[in-house]
Design a protein that fits this description.
Helices cover 49% and strands 13% of the residues. The chain has 413 residues and is of the alpha+beta class. It has 2 domains: 216 residues, no CATH class; 151 residues, no CATH class. The strands form 4 sheets. The protein has a 5-stranded antiparallel sheet, sandwiched between helices. Helix 8 runs parallel beside helix 17. The longest helix has 29 residues. It starts with a helix and ends with a helix. The relative contact order is 0.13.
């Protein structure tokens, strides 16, 4: 253990020396990290609202800065305890979500562009790597149920951006979550901060007895908000990066396509209009009723092929609309009106292997795949504002402290 920590320490020094310009200030490290989150020190008297979550509802960081929401008095630089409290505030966590937004968008766009990252209904294991890609991963449970990086973490996860891999959608979500961490931390910190076991992927239940940062012993404190009520109360940025599921309501006997019994996702983008609906509707609760209504309406329309509702409601196929009897056309218009709400159009999620799509796209698609059951949408347990934020915070502080020690040593010599 001591040798491992020593190696990590040497790696941290190398990483810092490679990016010393990022820590060129004489300010306390806590102040530098605070400013890295977007806070700005001002000389005039201000009273920061540290527990104010309104920053989470702003479209971008610049909007928060322009409204002075991230201003703090420069005399705080004399009090490290106050700076530490600011770093652990709700306002800082909201500012962090802008970084999460950029990270999840970058990760999911790269995953979406890789045509070699696939999902087949029947495959031999939870993850099937191509021959070259397999060399970068160590199997830790039989039948391909669990893997962890064999060598460098960033190289292992690069295969999902550019290599050939097949996996089902729950593992696809894990990969999207960890790819987001890679984008968030950058390769140097991603390789240094996390252990291989923490980045395990595979059958979800198999991760519980590992050190998995997502589902295992190192997950830290859960943020529990299945209904999305707490997230909606925080604001639109709070959704970004959060994992979730679209799940069938009726039991398995009503499933016609078992491969589409559920869809696992991460949230990629939420518009202001979608957030407004979510806030008024107490999160996802209101839309469970709309999902049920959508399904009930679909039962009165004759589905003619496997992609019927997707073509009718999402692609708006004119031939299908013209072929509808008048009574069914009225019903289809009611369905279309439901799906044209901002939540269904402008709440974007990543689902492997379909990439980034609207929630409405998935609801229509699932009407085709399993027409005998409605679906519900919910957030999964996650640790973005808890363990992930603290890991990121400590990584930044560690680099800064090492830089300052190196700087002091250089000055002394």
């Amino acid at each position: 253990m001591a040798r491992r920590l020593y190696r990590q320490g040497l790696w941290a020094v190398c990483c810092v020396m490679g990016s010393m310009s990022a820590w060129a200030s004489d300010l306390p490290c806590e102040a530098q990290v605070l400013q890295g989150l977007g806070w700005q020190a001002v000389s005039q008297a201000v009273q920061p609202r540290l527990q104010d979550a309104s920053i989470c509802n702003m479209p971008h960081l610049q909007a928060a800065q322009s409204q002075s929401s991230l201003h703090y008095p420069s005399h705080w630089h004399q009090n490290v305890a106050v700076l530490q409290a600011a770093l652990n505030s709700q306002a800082s966590r909201c500012a962090f979500q802008f970084k999460m937004s950029a990270a999840v968008q970058s990760a999911t766009q790269k995953l979406s562009l890789n045509t070699g990252f696939r999902f087949t209904a029947v495959q031999a294991s939870w993850v099937n790597f191509g021959a070259n890609e397999r060399l970068l991963w160590r199997q830790t449970q039989s039948f391909g149920r669990r893997f962890e990086p064999q060598y460098t973490h960033s190289d292992a996860f690069e295969v999902f951006y550019s290599g050939k891999v097949r996996t089902e959608c729950s593992t696809g979500r894990q990969i999207a979550q960890i790819a987001t961490l890679r984008e968030l931390f950058g390769d140097e910190d991603f390789n240094r901060v996390f252990t291989a076991a923490e980045l395990s992927i595979g059958r979800s239940i198999s991760l519980h007895d590992t050190d998995s940062i997502l589902l295992g012993r190192h997950k830290g404190e859960w943020f529990q908000d299945g209904s999305g009520r707490k997230t909606a109360a925080l604001g639109r940025q709070a959704w970004l990066g959060a994992p979730g599921m679209i799940v069938h309501v009726k039991d398995a006997s009503y499933l016609d396509d078992i491969s589409n019994q559920a869809e696992n996702f991460v949230v990629v983008a939420v518009s202001a209009a979608a957030q407004q609906q979510l806030s008024k509707g107490q999160g996802l609760i209101r839309f469970q009723r709309d999902n049920l209504k959508l399904w009930h309406l679909s039962q009165s329309i004759n589905q003619v092929d496997r992609r019927y509702f997707q073509r009718l409601l999402i692609e708006k196929d004119s031939n299908l609309w013209q072929a509808l009897p008048q009574a069914q056309r009225q019903i289809a218009n009611q369905m279309l009106a439901l799906l044209q709400q901002p939540f269904y159009q402008e709440f974007l999620i990543y689902v492997h292997p379909m990439g980034i799509q609207s929630v409405g796209f998935h609801m229509a698609r699932l009407l085709d795949r399993n027409p005998r059951t409605p679906y519900t949408i919910e957030l999964a347990l996650h640790n973005i504002p808890t363990e992930i934020y603290q890991r990121w915070l400590q990584a930044q502080l560690q680099k800064c402290h090492i830089h300052q020690r190196l700087q002091d040593a250089g000055s002394a010599s």
